[in-house]
């Protein structure tokens, strides 16, 4: 199997392909958590599927030259009330409390669903088919006391026969907001506003007339704020899991009284049984004992040399399926076997491992053998729900063993 480099740069390839694949008709997926349903946006599902495919098939060498290095994508759903649009604008509000202040914000975009106008012919006859969409920030007001204009574009209501997502780049605005309020609670909410004006009459019209209203929207049709960020340090999965479990009250003592210990004990028994079986089948029992079982003249059966062995991880069995959306399982592999002298070149031993193995072959009692450990690891992508019920895509390094060596 070919080695895989860090997958973070490929995230931007996945974004491009994912956007191209996105369609309103795709079925959204709801995940039940703590008795309530959390809807997974189509965009996030497509991003995960596309990135997973790239991880399996792409040449990672060329991807390292990518300018963007985001390894985390967090989606925030519009919190505006489901009510008719104002005559002059449509407003969107997002709760960004789930955006980590320790991560570097790389880019951000606002995704707004524009449906087909309910009365296309009437709209054309009164205001034409070209309209100016203007996006404002109502979180940062201009010097005149009015919302600050961020960007504008012209749309043609005759360009498509399907609903479409209008995507606005708001990276500069969100970065400034993130830096300004990094140490305060004021950054919890951000607000955006869209106005629509006819290119024919230059008059403002209600955004709902061109399909931008909130009234009657389904949950999977709500606007999305998507933040792309980069973790400055290598993510520790255990630390993040611990934080997520605390936030979800998975350590609540009340759960213990509802039979949780029995469930956990069953999982531990299952995992322990697997570990025991794997050790027997993979020759694990034959290599316990520091190298005296098979190398000497009076040794027993021959030990398995250091190599990669199967290890299948099932997040559901670990009890993490109530916050991990995908994958529900994956092949992590592990390293197992003896590092006997002479060491094979494909094991890529360090000089220290060579010397240690040589000393062990001469006097096993004084020097332990070198260890069979992962020499190359690759990342996987995980789609999960954070403590604020936001859907997050993150790439975790060092999750899959690609090759083993003696160290």
UniProtKB/TrEMBL annotation:
Residue ranges, annotated region (Disordered): 253-304
CDD domains xrefs: TGF_beta_GDF5_6_7
An example Gene Ontology CC term for this record: extracellular space
Keyword Transmembrane helix (UniProt): no
Single biological process term from Gene Ontology: BMP signaling pathway
Protein's cellular compartments: Secreted
A Pfam family matched in the record: TGFb_propeptide
SMART domains given in the database record: TGFB
Keywords attached to this entry: Disulfide bond, Glycoprotein, Growth factor, Secreted, Signal
Gene Ontology MF annotations: cytokine activity; growth factor activity
Domain TGF-beta family profile stretches: 290-407
Signal peptide start-end: 1-27
Family: Belongs to the TGF-beta family.
Protein name from the UniProt record: TGF-beta family profile domain-containing protein
Source organism per UniProt: Tachysurus vachellii (Darkbarbel catfish)
Lineage of the organism: Eukaryota, Metazoa, Chordata, Craniata, Vertebrata
């Amino acid at each position: 199997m070919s080695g895989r480099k860090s997958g973070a740069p490929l995230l931007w390839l996945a974004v491009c392909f994912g956007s191209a694949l996105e369609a309103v008709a795709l079925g959204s997926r709801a995940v039940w958590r703590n008795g309530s349903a959390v809807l997974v946006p189509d965009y996030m599902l497509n991003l995960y599927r596309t990135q997973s495919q790239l991880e399996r098939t792409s040449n990672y060498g060329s991807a390292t030259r990518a300018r963007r290095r985001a390894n985390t994508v967090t989606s925030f759903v519009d919190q505006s009330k489901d009510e008719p649009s104002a005559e002059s604008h449509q407003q969107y509000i997002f709760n960004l409390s789930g955006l980590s202040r320790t991560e570097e914000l790389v880019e951000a975009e606002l995704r707004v669903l524009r449906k087909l106008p309910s009365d296309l012919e009437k709209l054309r006859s009164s205001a034409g088919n070209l309209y100016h969409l203007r996006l404002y920030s109502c979180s940062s007001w201009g010097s005149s006391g009015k919302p600050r204009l961020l960007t504008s574009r012209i749309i043609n209501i005759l360009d498509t026969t399907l609903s479409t997502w209008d995507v606005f780049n708001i990276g500069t605005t969100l970065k400034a907001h993130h830096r300004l309020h990094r140490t305060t609670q004021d950054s919890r909410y951000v607000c955006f506003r869209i106005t629509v004006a006819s290119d024919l009459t230059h008059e403002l019209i209600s955004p709902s007339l061109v399909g931008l209203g909130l009234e009657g929207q389904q949950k999977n049709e709500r606007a999305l704020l998507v933040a792309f960020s980069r973790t400055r340090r290598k993510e520790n999965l255990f630390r993040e899991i611990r934080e997520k479990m605390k936030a979800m009250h998975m350590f609540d003592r009340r759960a213990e009284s509802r039979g949780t210990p029995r469930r956990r004990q069953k999982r531990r028994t299952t995992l322990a049984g697997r570990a025991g079986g794997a050790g027997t089948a993979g020759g694990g029992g034959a290599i316990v004992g520091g190298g005296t079982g098979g190398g000497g003249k009076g040794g027993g059966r021959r030990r398995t040399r250091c190599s990669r062995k199967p290890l299948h991880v099932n997040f559901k069995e670990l009890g993490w399926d109530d916050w991990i959306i995908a994958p529900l399982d994956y092949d992590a592999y592990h390293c197992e076997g003896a590092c006997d002298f002479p060491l094979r070149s494909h094991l890529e031993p360090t000089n220290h491992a060579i010397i240690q193995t040589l000393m062990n072959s001469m006097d096993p009692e004084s020097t332990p053998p070198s260890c069979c450990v992962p020499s190359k690891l690759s990342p996987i992508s995980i789609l999960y729900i954070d403590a604020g019920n936001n859907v997050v895509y993150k790439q975790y390094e060092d999750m899959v063993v690609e090759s083993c060596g003696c160290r």
